[in-house]
Every structure is written in structure tokens, then in C-alpha cells.
Amino acid sequence: APYEPKYKTVMLKVSGEALMGPHGFGVDPQVLLSVAEEVAAATQAGVRIAIVVGGGNFFRGADSLEGLERATGDYVGMLATVMNALCLQSALEKVGVETRVQTAIEMREVAEPYIRRRAISHLQEGRVVIFGAGTGNPFFTTDTAAALRAAEVNAEVFLKATKVDGVYDSDPFKNPNARRYDQLSYRQVCFDSLNVMDETAITLCKENNIPVIVFNIMVRASPVERAGLSRCFC
Ligand code: UDP
């Protein structure tokens, strides 16, 4: 391998918004390809990669349609994540990475159902496993699904792909003086309203000692550069 990877098993969370690229809706082929190539490189270096995809680029719960009940909106949101999972699977297979999609809501014609031990064995075989349909439950988020699956497959780190290169004290797109944190505690993430992820997700990471690393998915970076990003620790 060209370098010794720091982590053997990682959870990569890719939000729907990140997959959307510069558009207002759907999936951007350039972003898909770029994510696929970086994942391929990490796989070749021997890293086992589990991915949870969001769905906000297609549907974001009841907010997306007036009059929709919360639970129903959430189910639609979970179905949206499966569309992203299939698109990402296709992109990964194009660059030669063997991939399985597992969904938390059964749809056997398009993907495997989620089976923990099977997911682990895919990872051991060098396959990338993409988890679709979140946790399968309304009232949760895909960040929580990612934290849950990370704990289930014994991932050592939660890599959160966003549109910025870390956690800032205010929105860096609006405030040019926004300051980036090098390191944060889980408590700070929960109580300082930093909008990193929801409390359920961060609590799961904290309880399972899974560090969270926030990075910019729009920038292609080397693993060494990636190492300098904001972290959330205990
Ligand atoms: N969702 C859900 N349960 C889950 C995961 C997701 O109900 O376990 C729904 C929820 O409505 C959410 C939508 O699916 O708004 C899309 O997921 P999310 O907003 O987390 O996607 P992202 O922001 O990462 O694109």
C-alpha cells in the first residue's frame, strides 16, 4: 500500500445535499464520480468503508410537502436515501469497487435487507457497503443511522462529508471572520448549537467512543491533508 491507513474500518456519511453539487435538486454526476474515486483509493489502501447516504437532495421529511404527516414524510425521506444509495453504488462499480447496498426497509428487488453480520462479512471481503433507508424508523436522521451502523460494524471513526472543511463558530459562507475549530468535545457539539449533527447522532458517537471528523467533500485531498481537519472528541 502507498501509505499506512490510520483507520481500518470507517463510516462515511454523505448527505444528500453534498451529492447534489451545485444544483438545487438530485444528484451531480461529477460529485458522484469524485466520491467514488476517493473511496476507491481508500479501499485500495486497505480501508474498509461503510457508507450511509442522506436523502435531502430529493426529500427532507414533512418539510418537503405541505400537509404531510411527520412520520409519512420521514418514510418518504428514507425512500429518497435509497435512490442515492443506488446512484452511488453505480458510480463505485464504474470505478471498479465491489459494492453492496443494504436497506433498513426491505426492497429485495433492488438491494439486500440490512443484516449486520452480512454487512460485516462484506466489509471483510473488501466490499463497500452502502446503507440505505436510514435507520428504518421515522423521527430519526441519516446522521443517527450512520452513528448506529458505525457502532454496529465497529467502525473506528465517523467521517462526515459536508460542504465546508470543518466545524465553524458561525456560517463561513455568510461570515468571513468565522473561526474553524481544530477540536471539539461532544458536549460542545450538543450544547453550542454548532449544527454539526443532531443530538441523537452525536450522543451515539460519544457513547461508543467514535470520533467524528468533518471534511469538505467538494475538495479532493490527500489522506495527509484530510488528517488536519476539525475533530469532535470526548
Ligand atoms: N429519515 C428518517 N429516519 C432515518 C433516516 C432518515 O425518517 O433513520 C428521513 C427524515 O425525514 C430525513 C430524510 O429521511 O429528513 C432524509 O434524511 P436526512 O435529512 O438525514 O438526509 P441528509 O440531510 O443527510 O441529506
Structure commentary:
- The structure is a single chain.
- This protein has helices spanning 16-20, 29-44, 70-94, 116-124, 142-152, 186-191, 199-207, 223-226; strands spanning 9-14, 48-53, 99-103, 112-113, 128-132, 157-162, 183-185, 212-216, 231-233.
- A nine-stranded mixed beta sheet has the order 4-3-5-2-1-6-8-9-7, sandwiched between helices.
- It has a single domain, classed as Acetylglutamate kinase-like (Carbamate kinase, 3-Layer(aba) Sandwich), CATH 3.40.1160.
- It contains eight helices and nine strands.
- The protein has 234 residues and is of the alpha/beta class.
- The structure holds uridine-5'-diphosphate.
- Uridine-5'-diphosphate (UDP) binds at residues 15-17, 54-56, 60-61, 73-74, 77-78, 80-81, 134-135, 137-138, 140-143, 145.
Please render the helix and strand layout as text.
Blueprint: E1 9-14, H1 16-20, H2 29-44, E2 48-53, H3 70-94, E3 99-103, E4 112-113, H4 116-124, E5 128-132, H5 142-152, E6 157-162, E7 183-185, H6 186-191, H7 199-207, E8 212-216, H8 223-226, E9 231-233
Parallel strand pairs: 1-2, 1-6, 2-5, 3-4, 3-5, 6-8, 7-9
Antiparallel strand pairs: 8-9
Helix pairs in contact: 2-3, 5-7
